[in-house]
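pinned: reference chain
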Amino acid sequence: MLSFGGILVSVGIAIILHTTYAAIAYREILKLQQEDFETLPSSLLLELAVGTALSTAGAYFLSGSLRLISASKQSRGSDIGGLRMDFVSFNSRSRAMPMNIPPIK
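pinned: its structure tokens
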């Protein structure tokens, strides 16, 4: 049995698929009438927005509640405690470059 969120997602996806089919049919009708395609009708755009909103709401209801993540001192590795970004230094080959380089003109 589907939950409330599952039903919303199913209905939302069905609406989006119907909108896709209707948009393809609309384009075919315009081709038969030899008219240029500018944009979809507002009814199809509204239908797409409703389908997207229903799918998003259903996914929200399906996700469940958020839980806190806590790490105990025993589960943390020994390398985490020794990482202090204040004492990080970077050595590069810039010391080997001469300091009196003339500027590029």
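why pinned: The mean pLDDT is 84. The helical segments are 4-32, 42-63, 78-81.
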